[in-house]
């Protein structure tokens, strides 16, 4: 029997939900590792809806669970129904939805709050010593909840390749140890069973992002 891995989504689309390529990469690599992905999302309204052609918010209203179902091909459950006892690991892909719909990081940075459902799930996996995989912006969730943990969101010096590098400094201000890693690399916090990779925090070719996520998934399944 393959490992059962919860994949928590935050909508559909990089600017207001889960990053679609990252989410797909997680699901593909879980399949390759012989693991069974179980997809969840909170049944809540999105912070806002962004026109992905213009990069501008619209007046539309959308639901995180309903939008996430697009990526999951309809095979998705309400996050409120997640039972950590039935699962072996947790993975949360990136995308601005993590910072807008799963937390308030987008508007409040290190002073953000994390959705109670999401925080409860992260704490439950951590308490059960079950591995947690986080990529792109989603390591900020662990930074907020688990002081002193070790994480990567890539590099900590801003440049064309690393446009979001200031995130690393903010995570350090929360008491975390940030470890610089290339997009194809992962960092493993063995004490907290956290596996992180930068993904689209790096302005890199998509196959390198895919490969980095593959290493993260492989390590999460191994630790499970």
From TrEMBL:
This is DJ-1/PfpI domain-containing protein. InterPro entries: Class_I_gatase-like (IPR029062), ElbB (IPR026041). NCBIfam families: PRK11780.1 (NF008747). Gene3D superfamilies: 3.40.50.880. Coiled coil: none annotated.
């Amino acid at each position: 029997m393959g490992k059962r891995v919860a994949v928590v989504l935050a909508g559909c689309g990089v600017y207001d939900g889960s990053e679609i390529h990252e989410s797909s990469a997680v699901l593909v690599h879980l399949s390759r590792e012989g693991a069974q992905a179980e997809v969840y999302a909170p049944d809540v309204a999105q912070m806002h809806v962004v026109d992905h052609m213009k990069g501008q918010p619209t007046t539309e209203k959308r639901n995180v669970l309903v939008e996430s179902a697009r990526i999951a091909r309809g095979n998705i459950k309400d996050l409120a129904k997640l039972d950590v006892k039935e699962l072996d690991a947790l993975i949360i892909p990136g995308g601005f939805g993590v910072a807008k719909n799963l937390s308030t990081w987008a508007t409040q940075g290190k002073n953000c709050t994390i959705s109670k459902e999401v925080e409860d799930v992260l704490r439950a996996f951590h308490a059960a010593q079950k591995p947690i995989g986080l990529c792109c912006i989603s390591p900020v969730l662990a930074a907020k909840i688990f002081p002193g943990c070790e994480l990567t969101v890539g590099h900590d010096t801003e440049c064309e390749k690393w446009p979001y590098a200031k995130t690393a400094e903010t995570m350090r201000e929360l008491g975390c140890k940030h470890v610089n890693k290339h997009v194809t690399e992962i960092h493993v916090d063995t004490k907290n069973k956290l596996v992180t990779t930068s993904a689209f925090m790096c302005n890199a070719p998509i196959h390198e992002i895919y490969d980095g996520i593959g290493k993260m998934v492989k390590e999460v399944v191994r630790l499970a």
